[in-house]
Amino acid sequence: MQKIVPFLWFENEAEEAAGFYTSIFTASSIGNVARYGKEGARISGRPEGSVMTVEFELEGEAFVALNGGPYFKFSPAISFFVSCETEEEVDRLFGKLSEGGSVLMELGEYPFSKRFGWLEDKYGVSWQINLGSRRRKIAPFLMFFGEQYGKAEEAINFYVSQLENSDIVGMSRYGAGEEGREGTVRHAVFSLGGV
């Protein structure tokens, strides 16, 4: 059982989005679909019998999509980093996920990757598609900017302290003269609850 499961808030598109994602990624499936009962509908203002949550799996990673109304929107500050084994896979995933969405970084070569692209899909979910293998095919990617800039290390230390079997795998910092504030986290990898 996956200790930490991304929970994606949609206005009304949870079932449609889960179907879209499972049609793109291999080794994926849709699981339980829960519907709003009478009491849940009354409290949430959602129609009784309408889809509340959809459990689905992409590349062995569990997700839950929720139809919760127009109260929250996705932000590129949280995205899913997808590691691909071939350039063809990068191009295919980028092409499918970007249909109807917007490109945040064009698909191409960058100093940190031979093939990379960043996009927001038609539902507003942000994806970073990268050539390179990692232990996990899809991993959450957290970015700290605006008022949160420079707080990544503090947040990571807090998260790691809260769950057993958690650890900081690696952390690199901005140096003098680089575009980030010297000493702050440029990039870090950490595990929470074995994930």
List keywords for this structure.
195 residues; five-stranded mixed beta sheet; 4 helices; globular
Tell me about this structure.
This protein is α+β, with helices and mostly antiparallel strands. Helices cover 21% and strands 39% of the residues. The chain contains four helices and eleven strands; from the N terminus they run E-H-E-H-E-E-E-H-E-E-E-E-H-E-E. The chain has helices spanning 14-24, 38-44, 87-98, 152-162; strands spanning 7-10, 28-35, 51-58, 61-67, 78-84, 102-110, 113-120, 126-131, 138-142, 167-173, 185-191. The strands form three sheets. A five-stranded mixed sheet has the order 6-7-8-5-9, with helices on one face. Strands 1-4-3-2 form a four-stranded mixed sheet, with helices on one face. Strand 3 (51-58) and strand 4 (61-67) form a beta hairpin. The chain is globular, with a radius of gyration of 18 Å. The model has no long low-confidence stretch (mean pLDDT 94).
